Amino acid sequence: MAIQVIVVDDDPIVGSLSMELLKDAGFSALLIQDSLKAQEAIKKEKPSLVILDILMPGIDGLTLLHRLKSDPETEKVRAIVVSGKSFEAEKTRAAQFGAELFIEKPYDVDTFGQKITEIMKSEGVEPKKIALAPSAPAPVPRTEIKAVVWGCRSASSAVSPVVTRYGKHTSCVSVELPSAMLVFDAGSGISLLGNELEKSKRFKELWLFLTHFHHDHVEGLAGLPCARDAGFTLNVSGAGEPDKTLERALAEALEPGFGTDAPPCKIELYELMEQTYEIMPGVRLTAFYANHPGTTLGFVLQAEDRKIVYCPDSEIYGEYGTALQDYDEKLGGLCRDADLMFHDGRYTAEDYKNHRNSGHSSFLAAVDFAGRNGVKQLVLVHQDDSYPDAVLDQMGKDAEARAAKNGWALKVMLGREGLRLSI
Ligand SMILES: [Zn+2]
Q: What does CATH list as the number for 146-422?
């Protein structure tokens, strides 16, 4: 059934109340809580009326109203502003931007439906009497983001003595957005992604973000099939070393496959420093310096209303931290409330004692860190390549038990080659 009214309100209680009242008046309605999704949904559904709250995270209701009225596709939609922010200035602006009515919150439930009915009738829209319709209209689905672990071991596959169910390949994780394929690190795992891309031919462009140029993060570049495709574009972002430019470091990484020749694909280079970049519309990437020898980056990706962190080489000090070591705190600020975090979990707590200050973490320190900082899902990566399945299985169990014991709403797991996540 076509949607007649769209309600945009971030407050779930007021939003559901409006929905209830609209339903009682007989209109088919849709509630959108995320103002950033509203304009697109209104274009798609073409309702006769929109009901907008003013104070919302994302776009405020008056800006949304102005955009709707300035867009030929949506300029005809009628609009009501419902808000607790009832300064005269707001009312005047709402009217200037084309709202029919300004209703102050809390609104009168007895007259709300009646007012809507009057406006709709003047538009020639009758209630559809949707008594037989399902009780709640389907919410606008969140866009799915797919993340895949292609490699998560600590050392070159060529020298790894142990091949396990967790895989043998080194660092590579892909994050697929509706508009682009982002890839983090180009360890040997990227060959698996490369093969899949070659088969599916879905992308002619990759956005590659390199944390650093240690072998286990770039060794897959030289064999990447799409690098041999003249019609393919590789956008490579990373940081060089103080004495080596990004361009030079990349050329060295490509050399085993291409010698001193440039690969046939088109390469665009983006030198990063610690700051936030808008890498494409609506997609923000924060690069930050991770606690690891040499210039090493970690990344926070914010897209489609979600936050994903990739930080495979990073030493969280945990209980061994001193007052002068503020890395845990800095990282915490960057990662707070992330929906998904890939973090260094290289060592068992026991082995970490012998590897302190090497730039890698105890997996338990990473679990504690994620739990304390409200991370929703943690995938431990960069496991030491000498660990067999039995040790890795135990690490996974201990990580889960740790989160459960502390009562954190944290889902935690060990990364493994081929792990596919949907968030
Ligand atoms: Zn590494």
A: 3.60.15.10
